[in-house]
Design brief:
Elements (H helix, E strand, L loop, with lengths): L1 H13 L8 E2 L27 E6 L8 E3 L2 E8 L4 E8 L5 E7 L19 E2 L4 E5 L3 E5 L5 E6 L14 E3 L2 E6 L6 E6 L5 E6 L15 E3 L2 E6 L2 E6 L5 E6 L9 E3 L2 E6 L15 H8 L9 H4 L3 E4 L11 E3 L4 H4 L9 H14 L4 E6 L4 E2 L5 E5 L10 E3 L2 E6 L3 E6 L5 E6 L11 E3 L2 E5 L4 E6 L6 E6 L9 E3 L2 E5 L3 E6 L25
Length: 515
């Protein structure tokens, strides 16, 4: 019975398009836009005890839900079994349908708050495509059979890879970065064969690193990397244009009407992030506890070099300390920082400074377009990780501290800037549906704003768990992955007319928890 239902529902999936209301096929949904279908109607108010259609254990991971018709796909990491898992659920009821495991050859090094399952899978109706920085790509059929694999060296990006695959024109595009073998891959979705691979080019004297998912723009794959944004020809991977900018390369660009919008953040992108350091004698008086006229690593642990804005000092990783980057300060590797080495480090930090910001890029450029194709730039309250959202002519972004900004996409004019009343860190990217914008804080507070020319808060919903993953929407349901669960929120007063698979009867063993 179930096999027959799977077959019939997947016939419908094969005809899905990006505009289908049941399709959220990759990171940030259709075209990576973060926008739900026009007729979507997710709830405004929800939480662990309100408007919960179902919830299920999601496993360890920061990747977002990927939706194809009646299926939801998610990646997770099993630290006990040291397995990289791809999971499939029934969208309407939340029953787990299958999970498939891979074994990492060499686990990638990630940030202390991260894990080995940060990517969002992509789907095209024929297959679902899973990427792990510790393994490579794997493609599965709708019933969970392995279709093909593409092995890659373990990614070696500071703090972990973070990128996700994108499906476009029959190709799987993946930015696989690292200290070595950094390249943009284009694989044929049908069989996983390589169509082309091109090295990821970055400015001179720049460390390895790009955490962003590729954006598709004017027949190009755009990579937002460390201190750079680059466009590659989709047909052969050739580099078409590039620009240099002060950015850590964490957010994914958005596009509309021939324009590309990039939010670039850097911990040296705003002078207020760099505490004023005292003169060397004062520094020694405060931190040189053994009075040897130099600093060891332990003494350097309390010296803040850079601050992440809007975060309390007791927030883990709120600051970059001299102890954290001691190896970069101790040039002669004798285990101490001398006065000369300290002054040299301050000079290097000053040289690194440059204004970061959200900027609009005009199309049609070739070569270095750093000074020729930026239409406008906004440099205040820039998000560290979340990607921008372009919705109804406005660009929405959220910075740490819960500072929301709306910018006119045409001329860069700030429409509003204000606090959401949900402070702390933000990792999830905002999404839009039904004339509303959804912002999610790390602590799990989802603030819903009206998409208007003023900061109008409609609701704050506390999920009472950490959230790193961006939400997804299908029809009238909002899907959010927390630290332990995948939630499906649906207004209890509404019904999902014509939802695929609603008639499936679940065994008690398969039934998810419900509220």
């Amino acid at each position: 019975m179930k096999a027959a239902i799977w077959m019939s529902t997947w016939v419908a999936v094969l005809s899905l398009t990006a505009a289908d209301p049941t399709h959220w096929p990759q990171f940030r949904g259709p075209s990576g836009s973060g926008m739900a279908a026009e007729d979507a109607s997710p709830p405004i108010e929800f939480g662990p005890g309100k408007n919960v259609a179902w919830h299920a254990q999601s496993g360890v991971g920061h990747g977002s839900p990927c939706i194809c018709g009646d299926r939801i796909f998610l990646l997770s990491y099993d630290p006990a079994g040291k397995k990289l898992d791809t999971l499939a659920w029934d969208r309407s009821q939340g029953a787990e349908l299958w999970r498939r495991s891979l074994t990492p050859k060499e686990p990638e090094q990630v940030h202390s708050i991260s894990n080995l399952a940060t990517a969002t899978p992509a789907c095209d109706g024929d297959r679902v495509y899973s990427y792990f920085g510790s393994y490579g790509l794997a493609a599965y059929t709708p019933d969970g059979k392995l279709a093909w694999e593409y092995s890659m060296p373990t990614a070696s990006v500071p703090f972990g890879s973070g990128t996700s695959p994108v499906v476009s024109a029959g190709l799987i595009l993946l930015s696989h970065d690292g200290k070595a073998n950094a390249a943009l891959h284009a694989l044929r979705a049908s069989d996983g064969s390589l169509k082309w691979k091109t090295p990821l080019t970055r400015p001179a004297n720049t460390m390895a690193g790009s955490h962003a998912t590729p954006a598709i723009w004017n027949g190009q794959a755009v990579i937002h990397g460390l201190n750079s944004v680059t466009g590659y020809d989709m047909s052969d991977g050739s580099r078409l244009w590039w620009l240099t900018s002060t950015t850590a390369g964490t957010s994914t660009p958005v596009t509309q009407d021939g324009m590309l919008y990039v939010s670039g953040w850097s911990n040296v992108g705003d002078s207020s992030y760099l505490p004023q350091q005292p003169a060397w004698p004062e520094l020694l008086a405060k931190y040189d506890t053994d009075n040897d006229k130099r600093l060891n690593k332990q003494e350097a642990q309390s010296i803040y070099l850079m601050r992440r804005p809007e975060l309390p000092d007791n927030t883990p990783s709120a600051h970059v300390t001299a102890g954290l980057v001691f190896g970069l300060l101790d040039l002669d590797k004798d285990g101490f920082v001398s006065e000369e080495e300290w002054k040299g480090s301050q000079a290097r930090i000053t040289q690194m400074m440059g204004r970061h910001g959200l900027f609009a890029l005009r199309g049609g450029g070739t070569g270095d377009i750093t000074t020729t194709h930026i239409a406008w730039k906004e440099s205040r309250s820039i998000p560290e990780v979340p990607s921008p959202l372009l919705y109804r002519g406005r660009i929405y972004m959220v910075a740490n501290g819960g500072i929301a900004t709306s910018v006119d996409a045409g001329d860069g004019r700030v429409v509003f800037r204000g606090r959401l009343g949900a402070p702390g860190e933000y990792y999830a990217s905002p999404i839009a549906a039904a004339g509303r914008v959804y912002f999610v804080s790390r602590t799990g507070v989802v603030t819903v704003l009206a998409a208007s020319d003023e900061l109008k808060i409609l609701a704050r919903n506390d999920l009472k768990e950490d959230v790193f993953a961006s939400p997804a929407v299908a029809r009238d349901t909002l899907y959010i992955r927390t630290a332990t669960r995948l939630y499906a929120f649906r207004d209890s007063k509404r019904t999902t007319a014509g939802a695929v698979g609603e008639a499936i009867r679940l065994d008690q063993h398969d039934s998810p928890q419900k509220d």
